[in-house]
Fold this protein.
Amino acid sequence: MKKSIVICMGSSCFARGNREHLELIENYLHGNGIAADIHFSGCRCRNECGRGPNIEINGNLHHQIDTGTLLDLLEYYFAGVMHGT
Ligand code: FES
């Protein structure tokens, strides 16, 4: 499966946490040496503001992300990448 993260950069999601999440994800990918393995991009508002902040990982859209859930999700999806599985 293609490994990817798409962070919503729309004004609502951005103001409600994705500004910090953007930096957190970049630090995570670079800190773990997996930035080249995962396609990280941003998108415009996807009309899901009421359930934001939204981040899509490997095609699954996750809602109401906060720092703790984001770290859990990154571990869930990508811990295997670091270990070559
Ligand atoms: S700003 Fe993210 S869904 Fe609207």
